Amino acid sequence: MPLAYIFVRAIHLIENPECMKRRHELTLPRLKSLCPATLVLLACSGGAQAEELNPVNQQELNDIVINQGANAAFNHAFEAGDELTEFTFTSAHGVGAHVGEGRRFSRFPRADLDGRLEWTKHLPKREGGPNATSCIACHNLPIANGAGDIALNVLVDPGHTADPAKFLERNTLPLMALGVPQRLAEEMSQELYAQRSAMFMTTCKEGTGRIELSAKGVAFGSISATRLTEAPCKIDVDYSGLSGVDEDLVIKAFGWKGNQPTIRAFTRNAAHNELGLQAVELIGDKDGDFDGITNELTVGDLTALTVYMAGLERPVTKVELADLGLQELDNAERARIELGEVQFAVAQCGTCHIPEMRLNTPVFSEPSATPGFYDEMFPSGADPREEHLVADAAIWMDMTIDQPNNRIETSSGETRHLGALRKASDGGALANWFTDFKRHDMGPHLADPDDPLGIGAEMWLTRSLAGVGSTGPWMHDGSATTLDEAIRMHAGEGAASRDAYLALPEADRAAIVAFLDNLVIYKNEEAH
User: Which domain holds residue 434?
Assistant: First the structure.
């Protein structure tokens, strides 16, 4: 690589606003002092090690809410979360862990290392890793906070089997606009709670009760009950008729198995397993992974990360981009996408990958006010209120206006907020998330080799198709290299849709793939 090119590329990096925003310590005199090989590394990696990152203080966030308003606190937390996701953590911050054998990181679960302070002895119990030093080391396709290539797959061993034949393999999913699925899940859970409560009242009055559960048009099976005593009323509940949801009726939108209800829970688990960063609310003031560092992520850090991922721009479509003049789309391709949308419904794909859901109240709050979506106690055993995470100082955002990214100025001078949800005529919002938030049996071919969570080896949460055109490879282990392959892999409860797809003429199948490929992740770097 010519030295002149290296200098130009590196200078471009330090002058780039994004690099300046990340506070990379790289100056022209510093550049001139570096050897060509180092400059190549900097040019390819996007900059030098960022300066020290100050922990986010939860009480300071609360003070901003009280003195300046929740929206000001949202903007502050969003910027702090942005820095945290892009920051490259070092051993001084507690990244990594005492794996054993002198290792700090491992892409291979090491339940075989069961000596003093080694991998198996870590608290909380470790599933995999640690295997990275930043969030965007894995979440980087097609942009930062996106998905991950097959090379970034992780192996986990939640059951500590130390048996590679039972390891679970997971591909990296995108982090865009995660406030959308959490809010949809909250509203769906509230519907289920209300139906259950009504059935309990009927049971107390009449002696028996039964109800078919549904939320936002999605059926979740049934529950029934029998009255045991009248005064006070005690009942015996039968949850055996439930389908695709746990007995607590909490819709869990995160994790391939649908086992995490909130962005916060998902994040602190990922930080522990993938980065080796142990949150205070996860472990307390302890060194659970024996790396010599405590308090590796503050409560405020987790709030900032949660708010950031909740407020990231939503996935869009190529058609939307073309209509705004941000991407070229010829008439033939547009017609193919439109045909694919029709055939997507014909093939019954929308039965589980529901194209659109309505949000009654498109306001994301951290902490949430919905039961089942906030921590009554932290995993560490601490009371969140004692750690200053309180409902009275919740940070919130309106998901139809507040997302900072992708505010587009059109050629006519009109400002379009491409990052926000579309408003409904009655004040709600429309979310194109392409999922039913339900677990389904996908057949033995897609089954995990082990079932440590007890959810079912063949059970999978319906993956959102929002942004799916930008997030290959597909399926939980990245084994589908094309969207056509991903559809053909569907079995079990997905077999009917797969068969309907295969029965279509080749042109119609290609149109469905074009429609899916049209669902993309996009960020306008010039937008403000």
Answer: 316-362+399-520
* Contact by Cβ (8 Å): 129, 120: no
What number of other Cβ atoms are within 10 A of residue 470's Cβ? Answer: 20
Strand partners, 398: 363
Structurally, how many domains does the chain consist of?
Answer: 4
pLDDT for 527 equals: 54
CA dist 179 and 217 (Å) reads 21
The tens digit of pLDDT for each residue in 110-122 reads 999 999 999 999 9
Q: Which two tokens stand for residue 44?
A: 């390819």
Decide if 282 is inside a domain: yes
Please give the pLDDT value at position 37: 36
Residue 243 lies in a domain: no
CATH code assigned at 462: 1.10.760
Residue 434 contacts by C-beta under 8 Å, 6 or more apart in sequence? Answer: 353, 354, 355, 464, 465, 466, 468, 519
Q: Answer whether the bond into residue 124 is a cis peptide, omega within 30°.
A: yes
Whether 173 and 275 map to the same domain: the answer is yes
> Within this chain, do residues 228 and 337 fall inside the same structural domain, yes or no?
no
B/e letters for 37-76, b = 16+ CB within 10 Å, e = fewer, are eebbebbeeebbebeebebbbbeebbebbeeeebbebbbb
Q: Do 484 and 355 share a domain, yes or no?
A: yes
Rg (alpha carbons) of the chain, rounded to whole number: 24
d(CA 123, CA 353): 37
pLDDT tens-digit profile of 226-251?
999 999 999 999 999 999 999 999 99
- Kindly state the tokens that stand for 76: 């502050």
Q: Do 167 and 184 lie in a common domain? A: no
> Quick one: which of 419, 204, 394 has its CA closest to 306?
394
Q: What is the mean pLDDT of residues 294-314?
A: 98
281-295 confidence digits (pLDDT tens): 999 999 999 999 999
Determine, yes or no, domain membership for 525. no
On whether both 18 and 133 belong to a single domain, the answer is no
| Same domain membership, residue 299 and residue 446 | no
Average of per-residue pLDDT values in the chain: 91
Residue 437: Cβ-neighbour burial (10 angstroms; 0-12, 13-18, 19+): buried
pLDDT at 413 (0 to 100): 78
* Pairing mode, strands 316-317 and 234-238: unpaired
Helix (H, G, I), strand (E, B) or coil at 383: coil
> Helix/strand/coil (H, E, C) string of 15-80?
HCHHHHHCCECCCHHHHHHCCHHHHHHHHHHCCCCECCCCCCCHHHHHHHHHHHCHHHHHHHHHHH
Residue 137 lies in a domain: yes
Residues 249-259 have pLDDT tens digits of 999 999 999 99
Nearest Cα to Cα of residue 156 among 178, 141, 171: 171
Q: How many CB atoms lie within 10 A of CB 341?
A: 18
Q: In this structure, are 112 and 78 located in the same domain? A: yes
Question: Do 330 and 353 belong together in one domain?
Answer: yes
pLDDT digits (tens, 9 = 90+) for 118-145: 999 999 999 999 999 999 999 999 999 9
What's the pLDDT at 51? 60
- Rounded to whole angstroms, the Cα distance separating 447 from 462 reads 14
